[in-house]
Specification:
By secondary structure, the protein is α/β, with parallel strands linked by helices. The protein has 21 helices and twelve strands. The strands form four sheets. It has a four-stranded parallel sheet, with helices on both faces. Strands 1-3-2 form a three-stranded antiparallel sheet. Strands 6-7-8 form a three-stranded antiparallel sheet. Helix 17 runs antiparallel to helix 21. 41% of the residues are buried. It binds arginine (ARG). Arginine binds next to strand 9.
């Protein structure tokens, strides 16, 4: 049952819908006040009375019933206590019935959401800067699917540009097939860096010529390019597998080569294209933005041109309800510009394009400078985290079996959770010690709580999964019940705001409440009926934590 809705329907304020009221109902931070609270300030204007008086008067009109056990008015707030046993029974039944589907819904049925994320650059390092887009995008992908949408994961590969001409030139000078096969993306990157360090006029000219050869369909140049692409994708796919990240399409920038012509024609037809110093632009001055560059003076297309073509293609192919771009805030202007161009082209769906911007990730030791050639590869961050997880886990429990498997789950979880825990727009500093702490607001803490719950359940073996006739939840138990109850709305909020961090925070909050309950209430030695209830609560917590972590791409070890 939706308690907020239930309460809202009892409250009659002229002109305000039950839905609006339900959305104002909050969970008070101090549960002594009540389980739900409705601030009455917003009714003051309509009713022409003070919030305190409104709350007093409304309180009298709502009788206690089987669901609401007490209504009181305090300082302009209407506070509700609800029937604890009723809520407990209901939530536990729902979790046990829905299992791994608890928290899901079909609210998105029939709607497709395109999510452009990770979008790696071929032959360039897959570095820590790609961490957020990869794990944020992947979490959104899972969250939207969980809510019944059809999510389409798109890796908009950076596989277009003069750098590939440089790479071919470097390879022909210094490379050989065996070494590159063996060294993979690292060998390719070395060639590229060497080219940039040593290139003179002639080499630059040669690179431009090779790029032109790729463009004109030259076989040798294209074979080399495809080979570099294959090596890059093989490399990143291994990382995606470890992070449980999936894509439905790898249509990259190059894919739009033959789709830009019609876009340029359309821009011309609609009178949007202007010449400026030989280049073709869309003037965005009336909207307070620099012009959007469509064609360079040499006729070459740009990043924005390909994004415009890609958006049109996606609308045609997927008929999306929304198309999300999970890309760092550094590209804010780029997205505002090409969204505007599409709007000016008369695409009414341009309003459904969303730039999901996020902040920077840096490492504690400050090592994230591409200019100095000091790139932190994401693979190395993951390996280091898993290695440290092994040490941390072994120290806590030296007798564990399958330590490797557990360390993988704990280490990967820490990388993902570390990147997702904060509001996405915040710049974050990644610290191995912090993300691997058993104490803090970490995935390790949540995973450990799961292992604790699992171990209680294992010891209980055969208990009756029937709740007793008399149910009188203690405060600690009821805090867990309430936290369990808000998981579905947390998932909805996370989707609504494109904030997987809500789910990460939720998991920590539920784990904390469970641990308080675990330490304050004995479970296995409690009297029969109480014990059954506590075990059910433990089982429901484990299920819900697992569901929450799964949405973030994090697995839960059986033991820790
Ligand atoms: N490859 C780009 C980069 O690394 C990100 C692409 C984002 N997606 C897009 N449709 N522009 O900066």
């Amino acid at each position: 049952m939706d308690y907020k809705k239930y309460i809202a329907e009892k409250i009659k304020v002229g002109g305000v819908s039950a839905e609006e009221i339900a959305s104002s109902i909050a969970l008070p931070p101090n549960s002594q006040m009540g389980d739900y609270a409705l601030p009455c300030f917003r009714f003051a204007k309509v009713l022409r009375k003070s919030p305190a008086v409104i709350a007093e008067e409304l309180a009298k009109t709502i009788p206690a019933d089987g669901v609401i056990s007490e209504v009181s008015a305090v300082n302009g707030y209407l506070n509700f206590k609800i029937n604890k046993a009723g809520l407990a029974r209901e939530v536990l039944a729902e979790i046990s019935q829905k299992g791994e589907k608890y928290g899901s819904s079909d609210i998105g049925a029939g709607r497709t959401i395109c999510i452009d994320y990770s979008s790696v650059n071929i032959a360039k390092p897959f570095h820590i800067g790609h961490l957020s887009t990869t794990v944020l995008g992947s979490a959104l992908y899972k969250i939207f699917n969980f809510l019944g949408y059809k999510a389409v994961g798109i890796n908009h590969l950076g596989d277009y540009g003069t750098q590939f001409g440089k790479l071919i030139s470097a390879y022909k000078r210094w490379g050989n097939r065996e070494e590159v096969e063996k060294g993979g993306i690292h060998a390719i990157n070395d060639l590229y860096v060497r080219f940039n360090n040593e290139a003179d006029e002639d080499m630059e000219k040669e690179a431009r010529e090779y790029f032109r050869l790729i463009e004109s369909g030259d076989k040798e140049a294209n074979d080399l390019f495809e080979w570099f692409k294959k090596l890059t994708l093989e490399y990143v796919k291994k990382i995606y597998d470890r992070l449980d990240v999936h894509f439905d399409s790898y249509a990259g920038e190059r894919f739009y080569t033959d789709k830009m012509g019609p876009v340029i024609d359309e821009l011309k037809e609609k009178g949007l294209l202007k010449e400026s110093n030989g280049a073709q632009i869309v003037d965005l001055e009336p909207y307070g933005m620099p012009p959007c560059l469509i064609l360079r003076s040499d006729g070459a297309s740009l990043y924005a041109t390909r994004d415009i073509a890609a958006a049109i293609y996606r609308k045609k192919t997927y008929d999306f309800y929304k198309c999300l771009y999970v890309v760092a805030y550094q590209q804010n202007l780029h997205f505002r510009q090409f969204f505007k161009v599409l709007e000016l082209m008369g695409k009414e769906w341009a309003k459904d394009l969303v730039h999901v911007a996020y902040g920077m990730v840096s490492l504690e030791d400050g090592a994230m400078s591409t200019r100095k050639g000091k790139v932190v590869w994401l693979e190395d961050v993951i390996s280091k985290c898993v290695e440290k997880a092994y040490a941390v886990v072994s120290e806590k429990n030296p007798d564990l079996e399958n330590k490797d498997e557990i360390a993988e789950k704990v280490g990967i979880g820490a990388v993902i959770f570390g990147a997702l825990y904060n509001n996405k727009i915040k710049d974050i500093t990644f610290s191995y010690d912090k993300v691997l702490s058993f104490e803090g607001e970490t995935s390790v803490y949540v995973q450990y709580t799961c292992a604790r719950a699992a171990s209680v359940l294992e010891k209980a073996c055969d208990y009756a999964a029937v709740l007793p006739e008399e149910l009188n939840p203690t405060d600690e138990e009821f805090e867990v019940v309430k936290a369990l109850a808000v998981f579905p709305e947390t998932v909805l909020d996370a989707a609504d705001k494109y904030e997987p961090s809500y789910i990460a925070r939720y998991a920590v909050d539920l784990a904390q409440k469970f641990n308080k309950f675990y330490f304050d209430c004995k479970i296995l030695t409690a009297e029969a009926g109480v014990k059954d209830f506590r075990l059910e609560l433990t089982k429901a917590t484990l299920r819900t934590l697992e569901n929450a972590l799964a949405l973030l791409g994090i697995g839960v070890p059986d033991k820790m």
